[in-house]
């Protein structure tokens, strides 16, 4: 009988590695969806109110830039 730790899938990864990768991807996929929504929302708001230079939208711009940066990092890590 094959041990789960030693059994190999067709791709050459063990069942444990596959399970671990899948469990890591689920939260990452949820985070990616959240970041994509945040980017769309902040971009929409920034496009609608583009003439406000009094500092009120500084936080919104920072949120947008942070979401774009984090999404780029996640996509790079997941390959």
Q: Main traits of this protein?
A:
79 residues, disordered N terminus, mainly alpha, single chain, 2 helices
Main sheet record: none
Q: In what range is the share of β-strand residues? A: under 5%
Number of domains: 1
Distance between the termini: 35 Å
Structural class: mainly alpha
Low-confidence stretches: 1-9
Radius of gyration: 20 Å
Helix amount: 55-70%
User: How many DSSP-defined strands?
Assistant: 0
Average pLDDT, to the nearest integer? 74
Number of helical segments with 4 or more residues: 2
Shape: elongated
Order of helices and strands: HH
Descriptive notes:
With 79 residues, this protein is an all-alpha fold. The protein is built from 2 helices and no strands. Residues 1-9 have low confidence and may be disordered.
List the helices and strands and how they pair.
Blueprint: H1 15-48, H2 58-78
Helix pairs in contact: 1-2
Q: How would you summarize what this structure contains?
A:
The chain is mostly helical.
């Amino acid at each position: 009988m094959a041990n789960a730790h030693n059994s190999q899938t067709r791709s050459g990864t063990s069942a444990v590695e596959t399970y671990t990768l899948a469990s890591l991807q689920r939260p990452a996929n949820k985070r990616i969806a959240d970041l994509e929504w945040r980017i769309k929302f902040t971009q929409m708001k920034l496009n609608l109110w583009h003439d406000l230079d009094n500092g009120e939208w500084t936080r919104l711009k920072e949120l947008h830039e942070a979401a774009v940066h984090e999404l780029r990092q996640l996509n790079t890590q997941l390959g």
